[in-house]
Amino acid sequence: MAKKFNLREFQTTLSQQLQAAASRDNSGSRLGFRVGDANWLVSLSDTEEVIPVPPIVKVPGACRWFRGVANIRGNLFAVSDFADFMGQGVTPDHAECRLLIPHHDFGVNAALLVRGTLGLKNINRYQLRSEAAIHPWAARQYADEAGTGWCDMDFGPLLRNAEFLKVEAQLGN
């Protein structure tokens, strides 16, 4: 029972932080999250919510990275393992995993399975890196004060990407 209370407390705290951040100038605020061994950032305005992983119903004949569909408050969301989609291997199931849900303005009921969240980050304190992004949905790359690399997520290119939208497995895969 204590585990449920802690989960509810986490959700409440994160929700309060996101609401507080949305009410002030958040041009430099990003939500940090972990995908495989990489650190990612996403704009608060591009994010609908971050939730613990609900039950997911597998879809036969889908790519390995497409985990299935989840019912989130009465709406079906397509759940994709973001690390596996990018070729970084399957995200292991554990209590720290979360679903990152893009803002409904993108018009896609998608949810990205990520290894965990890393809290709010201020990119105004980070150094912009000049190297080219590995993926079209990595808008920019940064280094934090400790020199750790971060990719800044741009949901638009990901949610329009033909490979991301095509979830059926190819014959022979």
Q: How is the secondary structure organized here?
A:
Layout: H1 2-22, E1 29-35, E2 38-43, E3 47-52, E4 66-72, E5 75-81, H2 82-85, E6 98-102, E7 110-114, E8 116-122, E9 127-128, E10 138-143, E11 149-153, H3 155-160, H4 162-165
Parallel strand pairs: 2-11, 5-7
Antiparallel strand pairs: 1-2, 1-8, 3-6, 4-5, 6-7, 9-10, 10-11
Account of the protein in words:
This protein is an alpha+beta fold and 173 residues long. Helix content is 20%, strand content 36%. The protein contains 4 helices and 11 strands, in the order αβββββαββββββαα. The chain has helices at residues 2-22, 82-85, 155-160, 162-165; strands spanning 29-35, 38-43, 47-52, 66-72, 75-81, 98-102, 110-114, 116-122, 127-128, 138-143, 149-153. It has a 6-stranded mixed β-sheet, covered by helices on one side. Strands 3-6-7-5-4 form a 5-stranded mixed β-sheet. A hairpin with a 5-residue loop joins strand 10 and strand 11 (149-153). The N and C termini lie far apart (42 Å). The model has no long low-confidence stretch (mean pLDDT 89).
The number of helical elements comes to 4
Radius of gyration, CA atoms, in whole angstroms: 16 Å
Average pLDDT number:
89
Which spans of ≥5 residues are poorly predicted at pLDDT below 50? none
Provide the helix percentage: 10-25%
**Cα end-to-end separation:** 42 Å
User: In this structure, how is the largest beta sheet organized?
Assistant: 6 strands, mixed
Strand order of the largest sheet: 8-1-2-11-10-9
**Global outline:** globular
Structural class: alpha+beta
The total of beta strands comes to 11
Strand content: 35-45%
